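User: I'm preparing a small set of examples for a lab meeting where we compare how different chains pack in three dimensions. I only have the primary sequence for this one, and I'd like the structure in token form so I can line it up with the others. Please keep the answer compact; I'll paste it straight into my notes.
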Amino acid sequence: MSAAQRDPQRPPKRSFWLKVLVAGLLIFSAAGWLRLQQSLAEWNFLKEAGLRPGPLYLALTGGLTGVGGLAAGVGVWLRRRWGFHLTRVFIPAWQAWNWADRLWLAQTETARIGWPFALGATLVVLLFVFAVLSEEERLMKDAKRAGDRGQILS
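Assistant: Understood. Below is the structure token output for the 154-residue chain.
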């Protein structure tokens, strides 16, 4: 007897792609925390190097990325509505900030040359996030409807 047959109210198992999304959000969060930690640890070096916009910018954006990625990852893993909404706002907002940073702050040849790849990666990430969240919400609604009608999920 499957878990769905024992408890029809139980939501379906998390899909492989949802697990990939959550792992990505948590890795993204870890990168933000590392950015924060390294900008604080190397503050004097970054100041002396004349880095613009400076270590404060790196620390703030690292902290925001760490908090946002962690909150989104936990919220999606727990299948909370706020987690799905947060992810739908956080990822496009981060992508917009990433493009603003690339176009106005990063004055490197690599940033100028690599924009087609970066644009493709941005579109793939956005499509992936929205597709996974939409499919997970559909599966949960279907399971809830089947449970409400007393049907057994298989």
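A couple of notes for your slides: The two ends are 10 Å apart (CA to CA). Residues 95 and 122 are 7 Å apart (CA to CA).

User: Perfect, thanks.
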